[in-house]
Amino acid sequence: MDMFSASVLEDLDWDKARASYKDDISPNNLPSGYKLRPLRRSDYEHGYCQLLENLTKVGHVTQEMFAAQFDAMQTSEMYYIIVIEYVDSGDVIGTATMLKEHKFIHTTANRGRIEDVVVHPAHQGKQLGKLLLDVCILIAEATNCYKLSLDCNEKVMPFYEKFKLKHKESHRFMYEQFFD
What we know:
Elements: H1 7-10, E1 34-38, H2 48-52, H3 63-76, E2 79-86, E3 91-102, H4 105-108, E4 110-119, H5 128-142, E5 145-149, H6 157-161
C-alpha cells in the first residue's frame, strides 16, 4: 500500500526540474540501482525509521505505531512522502515529504511544506538529495500550491537556493517544542 498514487510521480513535468545535474541524472533518470517511489506501509521493514535517525530523534516506533500513523497520513491525502529505494537490498535510503495544507486564501489554493529531507550517509554524493527536492517542488506545483516553504539551518541554505528557494529576512518563525 502506497502513501499516494504512483501516478502522481509519473505525471510530473520533469522538464520543470530546477536543479542542474551531472552525468545525465535527473528526476526521471535516477542513478543505476535506485528507484523513486511513494512511501509504502511495508517500508517499516526496509529501514525507513532508521533512515530518519540520520536527521533527528525518532524514538521507539513499533510496527503497529508506524502502520497506524501511515494509515492516518494516507487517509488525509495531504502527505506526499517520497522515498528512494536501493534496489539491491530493498532498503529505503532517501526520503523527503511534501505536505499539502488546504487554505481558503488565494482562491482556495494549497500551501506546501517540505519536511524530513534525508539521504543515508552511505548513499550521499550521488545527487539523490537534489532529486528529492526537485520532486517535492514539482509535486507542490502540480497540486496547486501557491507557496512552498521549508525550515533549515543557515549552513544548508546555499543548497536550497539552487532550487530558487529564497530566504526572506522579514519572515521569522516562532515555535513551542512540547517534547523531543
